[in-house]
Amino acid sequence: NEKNINIIKDLFPSCTIIKTLNKGMDVGLFLINLLYIRHKKLEYTYILKLHTKTDDRFRNNILTNLCKNKQQIANCLSVIKKNNIGMITGNNVFNFKNKKDFFNNHYYYLTYLVSYTYQKDLDYSFLEFAPGTFFYSKFKVFDKLDEINIRFIYDKLNDNNSLDINWYKIFYNLPKLNQNEVKDHFYHHPNNYGNNLSMQCKTDCSGMRDFMLEHALERFFGYLAKYKNYQIIKIQN
């Protein structure tokens, strides 16, 4: 609301505040910010991505590790400046070798994103990411996300009324249906939920908080860094 916006402006007079649809959760908001930067032709060296998160303990732990004070911020910046470091997380780093289960059920969208962005097959050796999507990153990690690509991907993100193909197939146990068959199934079952956001909005159940396009994008951000031969590391306190 306007009251909160004015408080933020008083604290940070030079900040830019963007009001947008609640679409794609934190990933959608991140893409909108990145789109604004592209549109304004701004250039940065680093990105610090933070968001509210629903788990207070998880959020506060990561925020403490990434930016609890000036000394910790300076520490993170000194690390991200290193040529081989592309991304810093305040928690753990999950990759295909040590946490394969964190990529299971995401291959549908990961394959799609890699094919669209690079016109190549998914390379499992690049599957690595910062859980929770809190990170410092070199700005050029996101070179592939230009205005055209951002708009294309953002348009496919979820809100309370959308159908997420991958989530729907998993939640309703329909692994053999193709994309058109999933859409047809959803059309003929109007009481079904199209995605996790829809289910949470219409019920008291916390639901299955994963497997949508947004969650694949969280993993794809790490893919962007690994594709450029950067390391993704956990910051040492």
Write the layout of secondary structure elements.
Elements (H helix, E strand, L loop, with lengths): L1 H10 L13 H15 L6 E4 L6 H12 L2 H11 L4 E5 L4 E2 L11 H12 L9 E2 L5 E4 L8 H8 L10 H7 L7 H9 L8 H7 L10 H15 L3 E4 L3
Helix pairs in contact: 2-6, 3-4, 5-10
Word description of this protein:
- The longest helix is centred in the first third of the chain and has 15 residues, at 25-39.
- The chain has helices at 2-11, 25-39, 56-67, 70-80, 107-118, 147-154, 165-171, 179-187, 196-202, 213-227, and strands at residues 46-49, 85-89, 94-95, 128-129, 135-138, 231-234.
- It is built from 10 helices and 6 strands; from the N terminus they run ααβααββαββαααααβ.
- 45% of the residues lie in helices and 9% in strands.
- Helix 3 (56-67) packs across helix 4 and helix 5 packs across helix 10.
- The chain is globular, with a radius of gyration of 19 Å.
- It has 237 residues and is of the alpha+beta class.
- The strands form 2 sheets. The protein has a 4-stranded mixed β-sheet. Strands 3-4 form a two-stranded antiparallel sheet.
Question: What keyword list fits this structure?
Answer:
237 residues, four-stranded mixed β-sheet, 45% helix
Q: Specify the helix fraction band.
A: 40-55%
Written as H for each helix and E for each strand, in order along the chain, the element string is HHEHHEEHEEHHHHHE
Oligomer kind: single chain
SS element count, helices:
10
Low-confidence stretches: none
- What is the global morphology? globular
Structural class: alpha+beta
Counted beta strands = 6
**Strand line-up in the sheet with most strands:** 1-5-2-6
